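Regression test case RT-17, inverse folding.

Input:
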């Protein structure tokens, strides 16, 4: 029978000729992939392991199983090439048997170098190199459940419901001469399936009926059945595997949203990247568990596992806890004409390896793939993937996350079964209210299309604070205001089948240098190290969680220069009482957000109470702003001043008070605007915006804005020399006479 051993110990890692002993999981970019220097080591390294010949009985096979190696690798044993694998997020195996010696050396040559065939190559996250998930040694009999087909476990379980009863279709894939598969599902007895052999492979199919099944019902009751499959070779048991599955049905209605087991079940989701501070992507099981518990604590019931296949252990946790999962491959940002085969192989691996997970509702084809436009090759690649999803798994949806620059009449929009848009109105462009209009317009124009919001968010650093937060300032306060609005927007639009906050956690993005804290994307509502929850986390908890709580916002905004300050409270209770310096001050009724205003003169103890829930903080009146609250020192001097609003313009000329459209009416003005826009795009999201063509609708929205508004969004202080010089340049440009 099968023997499985964890094989993480006693490896040697070699980079640029320097070797060191390590224990897996391991990445060579845990530090330089997060330090914000703009580049990190993307090259080739070698992992090696010496070991004695395993004890094998006659006919047994010996495999090594890698749960993920990023991004491309070649495996050799004693100098013999065994397997090459392209794709950094999925399981694959190599058969060691035929080249085993008494003493052995296994080498895994790993590369995360840039290339033009393996996804991802351009994206707003760090591509950590290494063997960053667990490795196992497997010993199996000559007849065993197939270990060579796209990294799967050899078992595919498909439950369907009809008239209150469940039919469980099972497919088992085998290698060797075995002739039967014995199945057992919890207490429902045993059934033997006959293995049919064709072209050197075996497959057994059959069904088991479960009357009045216990349904997998999301967070409320994530019930899982256990299945045992035993492989028989002419009566002799030769292999056995175990799995879990859930019985459920789901659907998406273009008007009413998501349904689970026939009832409305709005998806309140978050997105998750798999890395964390100081560790990179080499997470332990305990770290995966902590991530899931934090997500559950906020009240989310769905997760978008972006932008690649995640650890099997995390999918298991989602099954067990009842979270709905969006799963996807890393076909992202920019289409590569030479990458089609890789998208197909990664999709086959994703589906094959995760087919039995009750939590997964869809297989996503791509994410923001149209950054550089739509080509016929890109369209054909998506048609191929869409057909592949339906062929491999007709019981789940195909899906796609569209870049907010993609026109809504693009053929990509209606290709998959369900789709979402990644909208960043209120952060990168436009105002937060533009999200409302976008959805209203889309639903009016496409009433039969199921639409979700697959990304939205605003960056913030917990160090940056302000009594007057505004778009583009990276303060904790603006991020909270942004999400307050988004939650209100969701409440009145039930047709949005799912929403996915970007992001649950801060994550590494080596190209970014923002908020005085380079090397990461700051949109997470929890810090990169998982130590601190930002205020925005608690507005979601107020809307989504049933766990009673009150939270005082602004606890990191300790030093306050204003005479009267705002005290904001998030809670899922219907009333809160404010106490100041031990004295009860005021009680307010309401929901989710409670705002008080109090005068401050010194150091004050602030407390808020609702029933058994309480929270406390301290604030202090100061005469000068705390420079730690600013991304750069030059902002401090005018932080509490009214921003300069009147920019002189000689008669018949322009100033930065004019709109983009007005300035662009003359060639000199358009050249100036184009140059500024190119600079801003090059600096957006760590350079992700460079070279992007904006849609006519997007350009029209931008054109309506005053230039000074765009400058502020780009981080330009209106009292800075840069703003003054730009205004002076506009003063020299003559307007067209009407």
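Golden output:
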């Amino acid at each position: 029978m099968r023997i499985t051993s964890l094989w993480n110990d006693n490896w040697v890692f070699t980079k640029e000729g320097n070797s060191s002993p390590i224990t897996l999981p391991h990445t060579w970019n845990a530090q330089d992939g997060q330090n914000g220097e703009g580049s990190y080591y993307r090259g080739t390294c070698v992992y090696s392991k010496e070991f004695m010949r395993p004890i094998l009985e006659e006919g047994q096979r010996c495999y090594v199983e890698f749960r993920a190696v990023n991004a491309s690798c070649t495996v050799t044993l004693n100098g013999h090439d065994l397997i090459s694998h392209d794709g950094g997020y999925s399981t694959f195996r190599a058969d060691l048997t035929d080249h085993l010696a008494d003493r052995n050396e296994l080498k895994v040559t790993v590369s995360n170098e840039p290339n033009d065939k393996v996804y991802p190559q351009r994206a707003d996250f760090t591509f950590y190199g290494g063997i960053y998930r667990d490795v196992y040694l497997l010993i199996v009999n000559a007849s065993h459940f197939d270990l060579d087909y796209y990294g799967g476990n050899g078992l595919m379980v498909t439950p369907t419901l009809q008239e209150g009863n469940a039919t469980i279709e099972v497919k088992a894939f085998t290698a060797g001469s075995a002739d039967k598969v014995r199945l057992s599902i919890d207490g429902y007895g045993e059934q033997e399936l006959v293995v049919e052999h064709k072209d050197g492979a075996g497959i057994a199919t059959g069904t088991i009926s479960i009357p009045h099944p216990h349904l997998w019902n999301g967070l409320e009751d994530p019930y899982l059945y256990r299945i045992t499959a035993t492989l028989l070779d002419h009566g002799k048991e030769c292999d056995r595997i175990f799995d879990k599955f859930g019985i459920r049905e789901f659907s998406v209605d273009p008007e009413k949203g998501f349904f689970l087991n026939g009832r409305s079940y709005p998806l309140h989701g978050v997105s998750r990247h798999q890395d964390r501070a100081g560790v990179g992507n080499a997470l332990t099981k305990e770290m995966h568990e902590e991530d899931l518990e934090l997500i559950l604590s906020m009240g989310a019931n769905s997760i978008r596992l972006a932008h690649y296949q995640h650890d099997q252990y995390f999918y298991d946790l989602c099954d067990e806890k009842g979270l709905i999962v969006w799963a996807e491959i890393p076909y992202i940002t920019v289409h590569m004409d030479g990458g089609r085969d890789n998208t197909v192989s990664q999709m086959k691996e994703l589906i094959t390896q995760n087919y039995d997970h009750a939590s997964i509702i869809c297989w996503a084809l791509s994410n923001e793939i149209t950054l550089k436009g739509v080509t016929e090759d890109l369209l054909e690649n998506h048609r191929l993937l869409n057909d592949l999803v339906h062929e491999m798994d007709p019981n789940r949806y195909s899906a796609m996350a569209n870049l907010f620059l993609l026109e809504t009449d693009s053929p990509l929009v209606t290709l998959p079964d369900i789709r979402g848009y990644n909208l960043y109105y209120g952060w990168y462009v436009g105002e937060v209210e533009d999200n409302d209009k976008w959805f209203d317009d889309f639903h009016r124009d496409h009433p039969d299309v199921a639409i979700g919001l697959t990304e939205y968010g605003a960056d913030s650093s917990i160090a940056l604070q302000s009594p007057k937060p505004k778009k583009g300032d990276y303060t904790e306060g603006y991020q909270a205001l942004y999400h307050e609005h988004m939650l209100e927007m969701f409440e009145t639009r039930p047709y949005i089948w799912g929403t996915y906050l970007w992001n649950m956690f801060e994550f590494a993005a080596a190209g970014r240098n923002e908020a005085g804290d380079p090397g990461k994307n700051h949109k997470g509502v929890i810090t990169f190290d998982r130590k601190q929850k930002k205020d925005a986390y608690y507005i979601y908890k107020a809307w989504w969680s049933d766990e009673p709580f009150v939270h005082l916002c602004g606890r990191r905004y300790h030093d306050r220069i204003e005479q009267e300050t705002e005290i904001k409270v998030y809670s899922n209770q219907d009333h809160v009482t404010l106490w100041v310096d031990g004295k009860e001050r005021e009680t307010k009724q309401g929901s989710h957000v409670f705002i008080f205003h109090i005068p401050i003169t010194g150091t004050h103890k602030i407390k808020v109470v609702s029933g058994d829930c309480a929270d406390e903080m301290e604030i202090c009146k100061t005469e000068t702003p705390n420079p730690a609250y600013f991304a750069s020192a030059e902002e401090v001097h005018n932080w509490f001043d009214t921003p300069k609003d009147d920019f002189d313009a000689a008669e018949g000329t322009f100033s930065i008070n004019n709109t983009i459209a007005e300035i662009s009416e003359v060639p000199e003005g358009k050249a100036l605007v184009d140059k500024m826009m190119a600079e801003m795009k090059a600096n957006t999201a760590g350079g992700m915006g460079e070279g992007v063509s904006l849609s006519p609708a997007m350009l029209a929205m931008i054109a309506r804005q005053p230039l000074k508004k765009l400058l502020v969004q780009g981080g330009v202080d209106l009292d800075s020399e840069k703003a003054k010089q730009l205004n002076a340049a506009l003063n020299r440009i003559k307007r067209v006479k009407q």
